[in-house]
Amino acid sequence: MAKKKIDASTEEKIIEAARKVFTEKGYAATRTRDIAEEAGLNLALLNYYFRSKEKLFSLVMAEKIGQLFGVIAPIVNDDKTSLQEKIELIVPAYLNVLLQNPGLPLFVLSEIRNNPEHFSNRVQAGKILTQSILVKQLLEKQPNVNPLQFILNLLGMCIFPFVTKPVFEASGLLNNASFNQLIEERKTLIVKWVNLMLDN
Amino acid sequence: MAKKKIDASTEEKIIEAARKVFTEKGYAATRTRDIAEEAGLNLALLNYYFRSKEKLFSLVMAEKIGQLFGVIAPIVNDDKTSLQEKIELIVPAYLNVLLQNPGLPLFVLSEIRNNPEHFSNRVQAGKILTQSILVKQLLEKQPNVNPLQFILNLLGMCIFPFVTKPVFEASGLLNNASFNQLIEERKTLIVKWVNLMLDN
DNA sequence: AAATATTTTAATCATTTGATTAAAAATAGA
DNA sequence: TCTATTTTTAATCAAATGATTAAAATATTT
């Protein structure tokens, strides 16, 4: 039997096109033909390499969920850093990831809504939100407030502008440059704001 | 020529089913047959009353955008209330709308991303974000910070939990009751937090 | 070079899906 | 009641879409 020697270049062309089309239009609105065309090759090749639209999507989705949680997971579980330090690390790191991947949050969130079983990382995500060092430190600082409230604020202030970016674009309110400028300003502002919330 | 006497009950059955299916699954993943079945009637009736999937969707979408901006528009443009008062009015009012319509933000945002031209309200939305009384009052209070930063925080802290609700549900982290509890707590917390941001 | 294995393509299939049509059923008007 | 109008349905259409197939092109092995 012959060993499979897959041309990495072609495979990568397909998955790169899949990343683009899936994240832009979502699973349901994506046509496998769109991906093939974007990759500059035949539709049948897509199934030759990845068997089905569903399988290809799962790959992209897992990757994207990894990106969304990957940056923060090691930070929030570090017992060497203080609460204050964690916030100062998370905010700029996360905003940079999102600047590189503006459509990421809306893509992941809407696909999880459409198909919760696609959310394979749910266990890890749950642990970050309930059993991380960050949660313990938040509870120490403010024992009377559900730590989830602060996590929602911290992540929300980072993510929300990217979720609403299509609105800004559609209303002609912000071009790409001024949006990025806005986010750059937030890098220091969010840290200040979250500290204010925690100290009062 | 005969006057059209449409049975309001049937028409309403269809649009109510459309509201449900469209907001749950999004435009692309929705099948007109799903809507017909949900409404308990024939697929052809749907086209008899509403001509096309697209037209029916536009109706629902306009309605939903109205819900999303309707509550805040009159508040932010009121020149009789102070900045402080506006915040105290917006937060609980908006959270109540969202509690009644948890899927609303994610639906509207992802559909605008998929199809920006569906966003018919874009002019009005743009004005709220740039020319409202609220914006002027924010600028008076903090001339050195783009008022959009505060609006993003105010709306984001209200909306973000609802956008991430599918994640909480999928990870089994929060049931509906504890989610609602979390939001109830936020009604006073967000007001406090936003005031902190504006006073520092 | 010949044979074998792998990659790529054009053509095609079977299903799904939005929409239409023609007829039946229900309702209103005379 | 009889007729015209409106509402509802079953059947069907045409296009789109995910996937397969068989053959051609390319690469690898001997």
TrEMBL record, chains A, B:
- Report the SUPFAM superfamilies cross-referenced here: Homeodomain-like (SSF46689)
Regions recorded as binding DNA: 31-50
Keyword DNA damage included in the entry's annotation = no
Residue ranges annotated for the HTH tetR-type domain, each copy included = 8-68
Question: Which keywords describe this protein according to UniProt?
Answer: DNA-binding
InterPro entries, alphabetically? Homeodomain-like_sf, HTH-type_TetR-like_transc_reg, HTH_TetR
Q: Which Pfam families match?
A: TetR_N
Superkingdom is Bacteria
Q: Does the keyword DNA-binding apply?
A: yes
Protein name per Swiss-Prot or TrEMBL: TetR/AcrR family transcriptional regulator
